[in-house]
Amino acid sequence: MAFNGTWKIERNENYDKFMEVMGVNIMKRKLGAHDNLKITIQQDGNKFTVKESSNFRTLDIEFNLGVNFEYSLADGTELAGSWNMEGNKLVGTFTRKDNGKALTAYREIVGDELVQTYVYEGVEAKRIFKRG
């Protein structure tokens, strides 16, 4: 249950380019880069409860590993897919509802940080969180 706890955004790597490839306009990209995202994760076996709160929204998400669910990104992009555990890493495989393209997300604990990696259309971005 290493993911359990509250995580606050510390820094981003290549996040602006990722958002650009996702089709997010420049104004939303500038705001998104400074969203003060905080994620609270609670794992109970295969069930996860995740609370995301940022400058723009607060969202509660519940999912079970391997079970498809629907999710909307902060910019309104709608996705469908699932999270699975591969070793110590959460791997999310999602499909955009608007264009059918794949978005892959990873969450893993590296040292004392939660590293969330996104891959879309060959562009990789990271959001790094510290316990908070």
What does this structure look like?
With 132 residues, the chain is mostly beta strands. It has helices at residues 15-21, 26-32, and strands spanning 5-13, 38-44, 47-53, 58-64, 69-72, 78-86, 89-96, 102-110, 113-120, 123-131. The chain has a ten-stranded antiparallel sheet with strand order 4-3-2-1-10-9-8-7-6-5. The longest helix has 7 residues, at 15-21. The chain is globular and about 40 Å long. The mean pLDDT is 95.
The major beta sheet can be summarized as: 10 strands, antiparallel
**Terminal-residue CA separation:** 17 Å
As a percent range, the share of strand residues is over 45%
Number of contiguous helices: 2
**H/E topology pattern:** EHHEEEEEEEEE
Q: What class do helices, strands and sheet pairing give?
A: mainly beta
Helix content: 10-25%
Mean pLDDT: 95
Q: How are strands sequenced across the largest beta sheet?
A: 4-3-2-1-10-9-8-7-6-5
**Cα-atom radius of gyration:** 14 Å
Residue windows where pLDDT falls under 50 for at least 5 positions = none
Query: Quick one: how many beta strands?
Result: 10
- Overall 3D geometry? globular
